[in-house]
Amino acid sequence: MTGWLARRWTEWQRATNWALVFICLASVSGQAVAARVAVVLSEDSTHYQEAYQVIRAHLEAAGHKASRTYAEGVTSAALNDAPLAVAVGVRAAESLAVLPNRPPVLALLVPRAWYVKNGRTRLTEGGRYSASAIYIDQPFERQAALIRLAFPEARRVGVLLSAEQEGLLGELDEALRSQQLSLVHARLVDGEHLIKPLESVLSEADLLLALPDPLAFNSNTAQSLFLTSYRYRDPVLGYSRSMTRAGALLSLHSSPAQIGRQAAEWVNYALVTVPVHLPAPSYPAYFSISINEQVARSLGFTLPSEAELEKRLGGVR
């Protein structure tokens, strides 16, 4: 009888232990299903809203919820105790950085130079908080590979850099050299006219690589930049579809929808980890190429199709 009782006691313990495991798993699953992610937008603009809508759709398909708020006036209470916050744009990230007891923050559509220099430190406060980012920039290796594919005769790549971006020169030079390309660059000073440094670069380079630097490329400088590059017969490789429409021969870019898709994948992964764990900061995984056929004809370039370049570039990432 004693042996029978011992066996029954052991079986009961095992059953109890498995029941506890299933209860814990159900609890974790329930928490994941009920998770509400706070998405903070820098402003009410089309591209920020596009990223939010894609994030919301993907999260809802996975059983989560997304709440939308804006950087201006955001408070801890507005986050509704969310286990994770997504900041869309620099302004949104900076608004979250000043909040006490904030959840982990994933910053989207932010320049890598900003995140490395200021954003990461402000969002993590020396490791007290968790943060990560999906940059708006394309990786230099991908840009260099596209240059080699689209312009096989090119040898020298021109770049304009502000002090904010100058720390990336070494990485850019290494990526270009891997494709047998050399770097020609000029530093921009705030308040300085663009034309002089631009012409010094264009006079030596075979093409101009545009980086997302507001001091070099903005609504006030775009027309002068494209007209000057056209005069030197140098094509421009841009970083957005709007730059292609404005006069860049082609652009390598990730849309807000593509970055929003990647963000949703990261968030879904993070919400099943305890505590919430974000991947390391990264460049966009998804990208597109756009070509201005009129500019190509005017400058005498014959390029592979957008689809062909995207396919071939996907193979060298």
Q: What report would you give on this structure?
A:
The chain folds into two domains: about 120 residues, 3-Layer(aba) Sandwich (Rossmann fold); about 140 residues, Rossmann fold (3-Layer(aba) Sandwich). The N terminus is likely disordered. Strand 1, helix 2 and strand 2 form a beta-alpha-beta unit. The chain is of the alpha/beta class and about 325 residues long. The radius of gyration is 25 Å and the shape is elongated. The chain contains twelve helices and eleven strands. Helix 5 packs parallel to helix 6 and helix 7 packs parallel to helix 8. The strands form two sheets. Strands 7-6-8-9-10-11 form a six-stranded mixed sheet, sandwiched between helices.
Overall 3D form = elongated
Q: What is the CATH H-level superfamily of the largest domain?
A: Response regulator
Order of helices and strands: HEHEEHEHEHEHEHEHEHEHEHH
What is the level 1 CATH name of the largest domain? Alpha Beta
Unreliable spans: 1-32
Main pleated sheet: 6 strands, mixed
Q: Helix count, per DSSP?
A: 12
Helix content: 40-55%
CATH architecture label of the largest domain: 3-Layer(aba) Sandwich
Strand order of the largest sheet: 7-6-8-9-10-11
Strand content: 15-25%
List strands and helices in order, with pairings:
Layout: H1 2-34, E1 36-41, H2 46-61, E2 65-70, E3 85-88, H3 90-97, E4 105-110, H4 112-124, E5 131-135, H5 140-150, E6 156-161, H6 169-177, E7 182-187, H7 195-202, E8 207-209, H8 222-231, E9 236-238, H9 241-246, E10 250-253, H10 256-270, E11 288-291, H11 293-299, H12 306-314
Parallel strand pairs: 1-2, 1-3, 3-4, 4-5, 6-7, 6-8, 8-9, 9-10
Antiparallel strand pairs: 10-11
